[in-house]
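Backbone-to-sequence.
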């Protein structure tokens, strides 16, 4: 799937986000090694710390389907241009990506592609 379509999926799923507290919707769509796609949105909780981010929701679905390698992930928020993943999500993406993985965000009408080495330099691995 091309990155425009991957981003369209992220935009679509961002509409499903459950965000009664922050009203900050996020959608993510993961493209895996076997060219499958998995979408996720953020969903919040009255106990705020239990909120699940869109990226981790999408990655969880990919993992549950047996996928282990992320080729690309598109992330979108209608609330913010250049909606890059939070620190926790960067670490989770890092677990399933390599240095070639594209992390795609939207800035106006354009897509911007980051690498994990830029977003999480000197990342922790075992
Ligand atoms: N959020 C995400 O879904 N992904 C991120 O990478 C950053 C934050 C969500 C969590 C919360 O529901 C809202 O955005 C505001 O923090």
């Amino acid at each position: 799937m091309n990155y425009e379509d991957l981003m369209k999926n992220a935009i679509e799923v961002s509409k499903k986000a459950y965000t009664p507290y922050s009203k900050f919707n996020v959608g993510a769509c993961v493209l895996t090694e076997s060219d499958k796609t998995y979408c996720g949105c953020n969903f919040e909780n009255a106990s705020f710390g239990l909120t699940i981010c869109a990226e981790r929701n999408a990655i969880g679905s990919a993992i549950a389907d047996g996928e282990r390698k992320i080729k690309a992930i598109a992330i979108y928020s209608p609330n913010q241009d250049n909606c890059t993943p939070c620190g926790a999500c960067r670490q989770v993406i890092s677990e399933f990506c390599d240095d070639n993985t594209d992390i795609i965000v939207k800035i106006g009408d354009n897509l911007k592609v980051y690498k994990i080495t830029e977003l999480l330099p000197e990342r922790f691995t075992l």
